[in-house]
Design a protein that fits this description.
Layout (H helix, E strand, L loop, with lengths): L1 H23 L16 E2 L9 E2 L10 E4 L2 E4 L8 E4 L5 E10 L4 E6 L7 H4 L1 E6 L31 E9 L2 E6 L2 E7 L16 E3 L5 E11 L6 E2 L9 E5 L4 E3 L2 E4 L4 E5 L6 E9 L8 E6 L7 E4 L30 E7 L4 E5 L2 E6 L9 E6 L6 E10 L6
Antiparallel strand pairs: 1-13, 2-5, 3-4, 4-13, 5-12, 6-9, 6-13, 7-8, 7-12, 9-10, 10-11, 14-26, 15-18, 16-17, 17-26, 18-25, 19-22, 19-26, 20-21, 20-25, 22-23, 23-24
Length: 395
Amino acid sequence: MIKHRKTAILAAMAFLSVMVIVMSCEKPITPMNESPGPGFSALFNGTDFTGWDFGNYRQEDTSWSVVDGLMHCAGEPRNPYLVTTEKEYENYEFYAEFRVSKGCNSGIFHHVPLTGRQSKLGFETQILDDAYQPVNKNSTGSIYDVVPPLTNAMRRAGKWNQYHVIFDWPVCKVWLNDELVQDTDFEANPELRYRMRRGPLAVSNHGHVVDYRNLWIKELPDTDTGAEIYNGRDLSGWTVIGDADWSVRDGVLTSTRGEGYLVTEKEYEKVFFQAYVDSDTLRTRDACFHYRFKNESDPGYSVDMFDFIEAKRFTEQYGKRIPADVIPPMTSPWFLYRIVSADRESKAWLNEYVISENRLLGKDPRGKIAIYRGSEDGIIRIKGMILRELDGPGI
């Protein structure tokens, strides 16, 4: 017993010695106080939050402030969870330096959506106080909850770190402290393939102290073939069937009464379609999106439209995929629907939750996109309708 105890003590001492050597060999980060190259612009000016959006909060009422030229998060209060750039980005090269406190959890978010869980709809490059720990899909350097980093390059609390991200669809490469930690093909990953392709960047307040500095970005050429199928001004490109009062109000497609369809004039075959919806349809839940729509007698397949706040009433119908404990915090009136229709299969999401999956579909994949409202449905408001035609037979 004594021999084993001595062996354990010696092993622990050896481990501590190695850790001391590793920590003493850490190369300090040289602050990137100047542009890293042509075409880069600063996201943070070191003086104030010009170019950043605090949502419904005033910056002075949050835990964010500028301290000694740093973007400083005090951790409390936790609202807002994310501070986003005012500008949206698709493909880009990005640098950021950050310093975490003991036990810190934070992150940099990319392609932030209007609503829903941002790390599940866009993606997050995770930040944790986890130096020298084994890697997993939630480690620093991970694409949060999907792809673990290739190595743990994080430094201990109180030390500066640097992220370097190149996102050029479908490839995402991430370096942490000059070590490659991500080389991921989003197109090849089923959990990432239909994430948001454009949106703001953001830094998070997870209730811990964290500092950011030297945030630089260079936009790369757009590659998304998706486009708006609603122009925000009128019903050009759409056909009204029935007496529903579809109209455009302040750029938002709106209907308040009547029954019928709003149908694209154009047919599509294999598609990805997304739209933000604000609806009061719980009385009958008749409102829905249709894909592979031919006509009123052959409307194709449908995805129900309903209010996410009250979705817990229908979780059993949708396979209990929407945990009740995540519903109350989701207070945005807008909810994101995404639909993929391939040759013989389809899939639909409400925010980040799968609400339908179909296999061995028998109908011709070619058809129109349609929006249906029932006579008893309430107000329906829709914006941000984007459609991307797809290659290949499956999802």
